[in-house]
Each structure stands twice: as structure tokens, then as C-alpha cells.
């Protein structure tokens, strides 16, 4: 496995965890366990940050003149990164909506 593939799998692994945690947080909120939901969102943010760091490393390499070859696996990793970020943001909104609905 080459370095580019290793970075792609690092991104995919981290953001996959972030997505799973965000979904678990939504389920916790549905059960009115907001403390646990918030813990999982914070943990998801950490995994997303790790994914962003790995991705930024590739961007810095290319910005410094190192030509990276086109790779479907990197495209997939970037797609997973974007979707995980979106799911995390939606999870936060859903948790807040659930709190608002249950406080009435």
C-alpha cells in the first residue's frame, strides 16, 4: 500500500467513527440522554479533526509542489469527510430540536 492510500484509509477510518458517533448521539437524544449525546458529538468532533489533519497534509504537499496522482480512494475519503461533517452538523441540530420539543 502506498502513502496516498494509507492517508486515504486514515481519513476514512476517522470520519467513519465520527459518522457512527453522530448517529449514536441522535439515538441517545431520542431517548432523552442528552449528556451522552453531547459526549458522543464531542468525540465525533475529535475524529473529524483527525480526518481533517490527514487531509490537510495532502493539501500541503500539493501546495508545496509535490504532484499527487488522481486517486478514486482519495476521492472516496474526501466524500466521506464531507458527509461526516454534514451528518455531525445535522446531529447537533436534531439533538437541539429534540430538547426543544421535549421541554414544552
Write up this protein.
The protein is mainly alpha-helical. It has a single domain, classed as Up-down Bundle (Methane Monooxygenase Hydroxylase, Chain G, domain 1), CATH 1.20.58. The protein is built from three helices and no strands. It has helices at 3-30, 34-63, 72-102. The model has no long low-confidence stretch (mean pLDDT 95). One of its GO terms (molecular function) is metal ion binding. Pfam families: PTS_IIA. The active site is at 76 (tele-phosphohistidine intermediate). It comes from Clostridium sartagoforme AAU1.
In short:
With 104 residues, the chain is mainly α. It has one domain: Phosphotransferase system, lactose/cellobiose-type IIA subunit (Methane Monooxygenase Hydroxylase, Chain G, domain 1, Up-down Bundle). It has 3 helices and no strands.
Q: Which blocks of ≥5 consecutive residues have pLDDT under 50?
A: none
Instruction: Give me the number of helical elements.
Output: 3
Largest sheet: none
* CATH H-tier superfamily: Phosphotransferase system, lactose/cellobiose-type IIA subunit
Task: Name the shape in a single word.
Answer: elongated
Give the averaged pLDDT, no decimals: 95
**CATH architecture, please?**
Up-down Bundle
Number of DSSP E strands: 0
CATH topology annotation: Methane Monooxygenase Hydroxylase, Chain G, domain 1
CATH class: Mainly Alpha
**Beta strand %:** under 5%
The percentage helix is over 70%
Order of helices and strands: HHH
As a whole number of angstroms, the C-alpha radius of gyration is 16 Å
Number of discrete domains: 1
What is the terminal separation in angstroms?
55 Å
Protein structure class: mainly alpha
Cofactor: Mg(2+)
InterPro entries: PTS_IIA_lac/cel, PTS_IIA_lac/cel_sf
Keywords: Magnesium, Metal-binding, Phosphotransferase system, Sugar transport, Transferase, Transport
Protein name: Phosphotransferase system enzyme II, ptcA
Amino acid at each position: 500500500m502506498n502513502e496516498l492510500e494509507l492517508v486515504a484509509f486514515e481519513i476514512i477510518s476517522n470520519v467513519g467513527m465520527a459518522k457512527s458517533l453522530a448517529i449514536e448521539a441522535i439515538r441517545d437524544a431520542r431517548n432523552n440522554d442528552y449528556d451522552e449525546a453531547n459526549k458522543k458529538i464531542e468525540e465525533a468532533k475529535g475524529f473529524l479533526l483527525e480526518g481533517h489533519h490527514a487531509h490537510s497534509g495532502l493539501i500541503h504537499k500539493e501546495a508545496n509542489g509535490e504532484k499527487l496522482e488522481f486517486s478514486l480512494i482519495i476521492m472516496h475519503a474526501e466524500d466521506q469527510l464531507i458527509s461526516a461533517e454534514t451528518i455531525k452538523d445535522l446531529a447537533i441540530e436534531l439533538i437541539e430540536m429534540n430538547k426543544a420539543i421535549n421541554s414544552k
